[in-house]
Amino acid sequence: MFEEILKDFKDFIRKKGLKYTSEREEILEEILSIDGHFDVEELYQRLRQKNKKISKPSIYRSLPLFIEAGYIQEVYRHEGHSHYEVTINKTPHLHFICLCCGKVEEIIDPELERLIRTKEAEKGFKLLTYHLESFGICETCQKVGNYHPRYGRKG
Length: 155
Known about the structure:
Elements: H1 2-15, H2 22-32, H3 40-49, H4 56-69, E1 72-78, E2 81-86, E3 94-98, E4 104-107, H5 110-123, E5 133-136, H6 139-144, E6 147-148, E7 152-153
Helix pairs in contact: 2-4
């Protein structure tokens, strides 16, 4: 499957008039091996552990290309930095994001997918990606009580 994605990515890069690099390939390969959400720091550390000489600026420059190509999406921002997930063959789902601690729970429900697919067909729309977020206070933070009931984290 990676070879197919790689071929598609090479075509995408060429059509944009950009240079294909082994760095971008290594970043994409690592991203596709991640199960769940990731941020730039986590991705950078994973690449370093594999002795890849890829800089953070290279990662930051590559991510918008991977988003535009439809391989990943930004799923949420927490404390000033973005978190991403792979979108290839991903079931539509919802993110519950705690405004206090930043915890993210993925909600995967066949009823949610059915609703999205029904609306997609009704509108004659071809779903390429999705982004469903709900913000609130997780059960743990509610128990601790250190949050503003309307705005999340107390200052």
